[in-house]
Amino acid sequence: MTDDATDDVTDDAHERALPGLPAPAPLGTSALPEGTYDGAVVLVTGGGTGLGKAIAAEFARLGADLVIASRKEDRLKAARDELAGLGGRVTAVPCDIRDPERVTEVFDAARQAYGLPGVLVNNAAANFPVPAEDMSPNAWRSVVDITLTGTFLMTREFARRHLAAGSPGSVINIGASYAWTGGPGFAHSAAAKAGVQSLVESLAVEWAPYGIQVNGLVPGLMPHQDMTADIRGNLDRAAPARGHEPDGPRRELDARQPALRVGAPRELGWAATFLASPYARFITGHTLVVDGANWQRRGLVSPEVVTVREQMGRGPFGE
Ligand SMILES: CCC/C=C/C(=O)SCCNC(=O)CCNC(=O)[C@H](O)C(C)(C)COP(=O)([O-])OP(=O)([O-])OC[C@H]1O[C@@H](n2cnc3c(N)ncnc32)[C@H](O)[C@@H]1OP(=O)([O-])[O-]
Ligand SMILES: NC(=O)C1=CN([C@@H]2O[C@H](COP(=O)(O)OP(=O)(O)OC[C@H]3O[C@@H](n4cnc5c(N)ncnc54)[C@H](OP(=O)(O)O)[C@@H]3O)[C@@H](O)[C@H]2O)C=CC1
Fold first, then answer.
1. Would you tell me which of 48, 101, 129, 155 could form a disulfide with 76, CB atoms 3.0–4.6 Å apart?
2. Do 193 and 255 share a domain, yes or no?
3. 114 among known catalytic residues
4. How high is the ipTM of this complex?
């Protein structure tokens, strides 16, 4: 199982004047004891691609049985086969998390396969850059429905089943730092992620008495080969893949991070396996940011303002 940003992180470091943050430990290793998740069932939405697949992989390496759920069956099946190669059992369930009936079916399928999942990773989300004034009502609705409502529906179903069974559980919501800062050009996604962040804080308190933890986990820039064309296009604007393969290293992206490197997907996976582990039982309502301090970045001198329209190469509104 590959981890797209890995080689980039290691190979480029010696060519820079400053070292940046050290490269992560090798793919396939873990700080947690072998077998930490033996007998556990972990449900990851959007577990067939990108960061969701990387998170699922780290749970699988530690012994978990996996359930991955998203809309596109072909991608789910390919990921299932890849993840099964890590040793554990994997079930892929097609599901649109916006639909409460489909959400119920995912949990039924999981229960039938391995039992009620003890860990839910709400990773599925939707996003594309668009100036707010150009955003159609349906574009807004699609992103908010998938990212915020879908996360709520999955979390609600998870909690209802655990409350009925009297069993503990752990929820991890994958967020984005523009929940706090705002996200010009991503107004829909930033608003939805702010809602997801709020759910972490509300539900952690509401459900702690029942033994259910709810935490947030925020990735920094972690490029991977499954990125949508819209998101890839956005990275191209920041750092054209000149002279590189489209999925290959992009040194220009590294140079834009305080860490002088982008994140490797496994770094997010490791954080997820820690948050849901027996070593993090008193951590709830917390959001862990794995982004090399990029979200706190400020310059001594403010850069010139460039509108979202200009950044996206769009002419004046209405023309
Ligand atoms: C950057 C770092 C942070 C990263 C965070 C992430 O989340 S990365 C994770 C990123 N991963 C993902 O996002 C994965 C999942 N994403 C997806 O499946 C699609 O991107 C989806 C969100 C559009 C949902 O699909 P769907 O089948 O439910 O919907 P649909 O196709 O029917 O479109 C609905 C409406 O949206 C409109 N619209 C669409 N694109 C654009 C655009 N570029 N511009 C403007 N508008 C656009 C479209 O025209 C339509 O409006 P209309 O015309 O009816 O008024
Ligand atoms: N990559 C990055 O640098 C960053 C990512 N993030 C967050 O990390 C998470 C993963 O992002 P990333 O891996 O990059 O993105 P991907 O586009 O690879 O993953 C999104 C996943 O969500 C699934 N999905 C989308 N809509 C639905 C739906 N309606 N029902 C069920 N599943 C759905 C998709 O599968 P399918 O199409 O089959 O439904 C896909 O597997 C997201 O929450 C994102 O916001 C945050 C900051 C930075």
1. 48
2. no
3. no
4. 0.98
The two tokens of residue 191 are 């608003």
Per the structure, the complete domain to which residue 217 belongs is given by 33-222+265-291
Region of 63 on the Ramachandran plot (φ > 0 left; ψ -120 to 50 alpha; else beta): left
Atom 28 (ligand 1) nearest CA: 142
Q: How many domains does the chain have?
A: 2
Residue with tokens 């940011």: 289
Residues contacting residue 201 through CB under 8 Å, at least 6 positions apart: 285
- Per-residue pLDDT tens for 235-286? 888 776 554 454 555 778 899 999 999 999 999 999 999 999 999 999 999 9
Q: What is the pLDDT of residues 161-185, one digit of tens each?
A: 999 999 999 999 999 999 999 999 9
Q: How much distance in Å is there from the Cα of 64 to the middle of ligand 1?
A: 32
